[in-house]
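ok so I'm stuck.
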Amino acid sequence: MVERRAPHPVLDGFSPAVREWFSTSFPEPTPPQVQGWPAIRGGAHTLVCAPTGSGKTLTAFLSSIDRLCTTPPPDPKARTRVLYISPLRALAVDVEKNLRSPLTGIRLAAERLGEPFVEPTVGMRTGDTSARDRQVLQRRPVDLLITTPESLYLMLTSEVSRTLVNVDTVIIDEIHAMATTKRGAHLMLSLERLEEITVAPPQRIGLSATQRPLEEIAHFLGGHATDGGRRRVEIVDAGVRKPLEVDVVVPVDDMGDLGRPTGELRSGPAHMAMEGARTSIWPSIHPRILQQVLEHRSTIVFCNARRQAERLAARLNELAADAGRAHVLAEAAVVAAHQRGRELDPLHRSGPPLRRATLGRSPTRPRWGVSHSAAGSGPLGTGNPLMARRGAGRAPAGSPSGRLRPSGRSPPPRRSSPRSVRRSPR
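replied:
not stuck anymore, here's the structure
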């Protein structure tokens, strides 16, 4: 809860309950919200480019949430009015959880002010949704449906399409990930099919932190109208370049000395013991990663494999216990955290004394603030590690930081030469 201030002028278009909740929850609107809400509330197709952690998701959702909370639902058999489409199922799970806080806060604000409030229903349909849950969504549609491009296609191809006729807003997150792919072209085709069955053409809102060039992404988002002309899309460019602190740390003097036999037996299965132990870089990496965990409020360590994440987590716990810092790591959370949403929740609920550390395989975006990220192994490319560091310092004023620790002298990834490409017969 923040100190209550006079509502920002950009909030004047929202209902009293939404203004009350926002004014008591945030110091002030962020730049993408100030620039984006007038266009979105005006009904224009809108493309929002803003850095990670700047509130662009709330920029897209708040106008729709306000409308859902203040207007009665339409036909119960065709209740869905807002579609949120994400190319990542894990991100869809995060959005569903993050919607609980504003909906609860707006409801409480409406009760305090004596304003009418309609409780919106939220549901999710992805490839992981069970057949029983899909049937429930068909019988009792929700106001706000979170889905993926493939699931939207399946809904449009089945009887479920009748529940989508009142959709008035489509929010596409991480639009840059689909703009240049066949998957994106297929999604745009699904949006045109959706427009054919809806009562009115739905508003399209695109979100991303790394979309360039904006004009082409806007063209991709808006598409073409029936007369062949481009649909107009308002571009909200609130992108800023945050200072990025990335260090490549090699904890040994000579990487060429790694992998030499030591003459000692190797722990593990019998066939591994027969090979003998070899010099490793990991004994030098473990204490340094633990030091980073102690120096920061929260840390994510990325590894290349689940087994590696589990072994590293166990070793960090042992080192922390030996140093008398057993409270540093959360036992239920510091495991291979590629199962999104399960291991991160205990960290989210942890109190101030805990130093958060989560180990995972891929660049996830946790729901709690991350002040630092580290790589426990050096991948062959640089895209994923840099994306992981962009997830740290997610607050509007935060600065991402991280450390890369290569575990060996990996060769660059091989690329297929034109001659080796197998051509299909005509």
